Amino acid sequence: MTSDKVFSGIGALLIILGILVILTPWVLFPVCEVEGMYLTTSAGVQMPMKCGWTARAETGMGALIIVAGGLLMARRSPETRQAVGVFSAAAGILVVLFPTYLIGMCRLADHPCRQLTLPALEVLGIIILIIGAFLIWKRE
User: Fold this and answer.
1) Which residue, 52, 56, 70, 78, is most buried by CB atoms nearer than 10 A?
2) Is 31 left (phi over 0), alpha (psi -120 to 50) or beta?
3) What is the pLDDT of residues 66-111, one digit of tens each?
4) Strand runs (DSSP E) across the chain, as ranges?
5) Is the whole-model pTM more than 0.85?
């Protein structure tokens, strides 16, 4: 298998992972907001819970990961691979950090966002980070 085919395959994999990052909090393992749970303020205003804001942030990250995968498929120069690798590693870290530290999820352990969405996003983020590290490391 030539290196161009390998990197095209990695680009396609990044696109698929980006789509999964987008779909996870909304469709595959919906957050509480999708389930109809909202936080009601003392003024009676309903607002999305933390997991709803995390889902929005993950949607943006997933879109950027799709763009990175498309860029890798379109241009496979060593410089592009390095840049996509650095970006993918950073994106993978953010995919993990949004639900864990930066924004968070609901506090209750029995909410669907804690039981399903959080672990799924952590696994996806780690896979994206590993792909980014591989692209940085691979100098061919």
Assistant:
1) 52
2) beta
3) 999 999 999 978 899 999 999 999 999 999 999 999 999 988 888 8
4) 39-40, 46-47
5) yes
